Amino acid sequence: MSQPQMIFVNLSVKDLDATKAFWEKLGYSTNPQFTDENAACLVISDTIFAMLLTEAHFKTFATKPIADASATTEVMVALSADSREKVDEIVDAALAAGGTEPRPAMDMGFMYGRAFEDLDHHVWEFVWMDPAAVQG
Description:
This protein is of the alpha/beta class and 136 residues long. 24% of the residues lie in helices and 32% in strands. The strands form 2 sheets. The protein has a 4-stranded mixed sheet with strand order 1-4-3-2. The protein has helices at 16-25, 55-59, 84-96, 131-135; strands at 7-13, 29-31, 39-43, 48-54, 76-80, 106-107, 111-117, 123-129.
């Protein structure tokens, strides 16, 4: 039996300590085995991770300039949530921790989502979908 596929989203950050503190305020942790002064492995789930890399360290992997996410859309990472309330809980915590909300909530009844920009302006979306709507 094969292992579940994993994802490691690599993101450049200006201040690694501030970024780790931001995510801790949202209830997330880092894996100390893959965290040092250059990078932090943010654990989102058993199979989803974000490698938060200092700009200098990120440049050792990148072959193109680092995008200025405050001026251009670099990526939008969308994650599922267990409920509408969980979507609000996470985004409200992000806003309280210094994030910004780039647009109003999306409410289609069977699907609800909100987004925030983290301290480096990376866009994170949290979405809940009614399980009955997903099956039908």
